[in-house]
Design goal:
This protein is an alpha+beta fold and 306 residues long. Helices cover 63% and strands 13% of the residues. It is built from five helices and five strands; from the N terminus they run αββαβββααα. The protein has a five-stranded antiparallel beta sheet with strand order 2-1-5-4-3, with helices on both faces. α1 packs antiparallel against α3.
Length: 306
């Protein structure tokens, strides 16, 4: 039905719009959350580099000696850690020089290619999976003092809070979109039924007229000036014309029936004369001529009425 099709199209369009909005919102929030994590990692990396530089300068050592055990006291990196944030410090030989206590006996995922690239000055941001399927955002960067690479720092942040926020948003969007589409479908069905009610009334009226052949019936006009109202007006105008034509036909039939009674009576009288055995040839000829003239006159007269 038109009502069902309208409801389905409206619901599908609303679902599409809400889905697009949800994807945009999801992408924006995810990008914002992960960007905040990346900025926090970069800040902690700068803090580690500043502390290492101060330690080297206090020891009045060549930055290159940072890789030699005992020449420079490695600063404790646990001060840069926090719940969900982990730090590891490597010297120039890519030997682990220190790590935050919250790592315990574990270490962050190591990739020697990434560590080597970081020692040469590259900075890498990647998402890794640690033990227990924990997702970490891992920053690997070089530590430089006077533009001399002295080591590598890895700072990792757990993504559980960001992932949890995104999961909550996804659930909220899914439930919200589903409820919105259901409510819209119910509302759309009600609105469509109300909008199509005049058309349904016109259909019923047309069916009743066809069944009863009562051309005096008319469909209801809403008088709102919309498309349905114009359709009702046009339908009623058509019914008026049909009623006039039907009444004209009835009058014509009645007139023809009345007009034919007299000539038919005359014709029947002449036929009686023809059947009469006493009628002579002249009388029969006159009767046939009279019948022919009367029939021609009536036919011509009634044809002119058309």
């Amino acid at each position: 039905s038109i009502r069902l099709r309208l409801t389905l199209w409206y619901s599908a369009l609303l679902a599409l719009v809400l889905t697009i909005f949800g994807v945009i919102l999801y992408t924006t929030l995810a990008f914002s959350l992960y960007a905040d994590v990346d900025r926090d990692l970069a800040t902690r990396r700068d803090q580690v580099e500043a502390v290492v530089e101060n330690a080297i300068r206090r020891a009045q050592s060549n930055p290159r000696l940072f890789s030699l055990a005992g020449r420079v006291v490695i600063p404790p990196v646990d001060v840069f850690a926090s719940p969900g944030v982990y730090v590891e410090l490597f010297n120039r030989d890519l030997v682990l020089a220190g790590k935050s206590e919250n790592l315990g006996d574990q270490q962050l995922p190591h990739d020697m290619l990434v560590l080597t690239a970081a020692r040469d000055g590259a900075t890498t941001l990647r998402t890794v999976v640690a033990s227990g399927n924990a997702r970490l955002r891992l920053l690997t960067a070089s530590i430089k003092v006077d533009n001399i690479p002295v080591g590598v720092v890895q700072v990792a942040a757990a993504l559980r809070d960001a992932d949890a926020a995104i999961d909550r948003l996804t659930t909220t969007l899914a439930v919200g979109i589903l409820l919105s589409v259901v409510i819209a479908a119910l509302g759309g069905s009600f609105i469509a039924a109300r909008a199509l009610r005049p058309i349904d009334q016109m259909t019923r009226a047309a069916h009743a007229i066809a069944q009863t052949q009562d051309l005096a019936q008319r469909v209801h006009e809403t008088h709102q000036g919309d498309e349905v109202d114009r359709l009702a007006i046009t339908f009623n105008e058509m019914l008026d014309r049909l009623a006039n034509l039907f009444h004209t036909q009835q009058r014509f039939t009645a007139d023809v029936s009345h007009e034919l009674r007299t000539p038919l009576t005359i014709i029947r009288g002449y036929i009686s004369i023809l059947r009469s055995a006493k009628a002579g040839s002249d009388e029969k000829a006159d009767a046939i001529a009279a019948i022919d003239a009367e029939a021609e006159f009536e036919i011509f007269k009634n044809l002119n009425k058309f």
